[in-house]
Known about the structure:
The complex is a heterodimer of chains A (421) and B (65). By secondary structure, chain A is an alpha+beta fold. In chain A, 16% of the residues lie in helices and 46% in strands.
Amino acid sequence: MPFNESSAPTSFDCPVCNTPIPGYDLTESSYFGCAQCQTYFYYGDTGPIDRKTTFPTRLEPTPLAVGSEGYIDGKWVRVTGIIKKREEKYADPWLEYVLMTKESGYQVLSEFNGHWMVMRPAEGNYQEEKGKNVTDEDREYTLYNRYNCRVLNAVGEFYWDVLEDSKLNISEYIHPPYLLSREVGLQGTEWYKAVYKTPQEITTAFGLPSPLPKPLGIGAIQPSSAGQKRPTVTWLATRLALLVVVIQVLFYIIKPQKTLFDQSYSWNSDSTLPGSNQPIVTSSFAFAGPSAMAIKLKANVDNNWVEVPISLINETSGQSYEFTRTVEYYHGIDSGESWEEGAQKDEAILSHIPSGQYHLNLYPNSEGKNRFSVHVTVVQNPILYSNLFLMLILIAIYPIVLFIQQNVFEHKRWEESDFGP
Amino acid sequence: MLEKLLKIKYVVLAGGLLTAGFAWAGMYGTRLLGDDLESVEKMDNNSYQHGSGRRSGHRTGFYHK
């Protein structure tokens, strides 16, 4: 080969336009694409030069140029060739950068709409199952795309005839951030494994002076941020939920429920009777706080109601805690169907009540002239189920949000595929 | 797992605070959401034993078939 030592590291002149074509691995490379005149030719160890084609369009400037060096996954690579391709069915092109490595032969860095992936030859024998899945020792891949490609341009040096790529039947199976590609051609079947790379990773890998453009849409193997977080967040949420239940049980043991007061009273709703407007004043009881207090009411209402404004009075401090409960119960038969509404009991739970001697003042009122029996129970340290359920709901919110985000993300990813799940 | 948890350290922190809040509420009998208490008043020392006529009660509404 007529090497021109003036171009680093070695080069030879394009047989058509005499532009120097750099050569980095001329012992392996036999096919070359000229960036100047778009000529693509074969140039083996022994001549002559065989012009294969001239691409009709010039390759626009690419983020990485032939000769660019970088470190991917900590390993040195150099771009030795760039191929522009598109699917037969679709016009959107992508770029494939052929990367020379020191240890593991060639790799391909592919970029489509700002989404990058590094593709390496895969060892092993893979079989498509159920017409759309491929499994390896680590994971199951799902069919995402099948296509034939068209080579639009090729610049640099290549160890195979890139024009032959248009004869390949390519199937891509994904398990983000991984991809398995099957290329079936006349020479047989070859498999490649790819892993997703962010533009930031590529910028850093090649030491680019300015950041690469942000990706458009969802990439075929772009990992979902929500999907990456979800397993850890779910793990954490289940542990927190368990911890909360354990704490609740501990409180049940160390702060057991205790009935402080349990008494029945009789009251007549006939306002014409003397003393009917007098409140029911309970006897006093000691309360050890600060803690919650449950005041439970039972009344023998039957198709009726009784409203009971209540004052819980701290006899030491004179503080009065005001609240109202209503007991109402209705039942009957309509069109042969029995129905009931309400209940003969109700309960109020008061928060953070301090220690002290207390009693209750009850001011019942109702309609009609009925005699009611009102049963009052006061319980210290009732179980605050609302706190428990609130906590469990709060703990579940973020995993649920991530689940929804991940599903929306996957839905958008598969919108780009002809083989949605 | 520790490495993975570090990636969501703010979620871990929020979860820890929530759990601490729950434990505090349980310890002091505080409801985190809603309260049946309508008001707290300071009563005259002589009046709390008898509330006659203090309030007549007023039903604001109820279901009736």
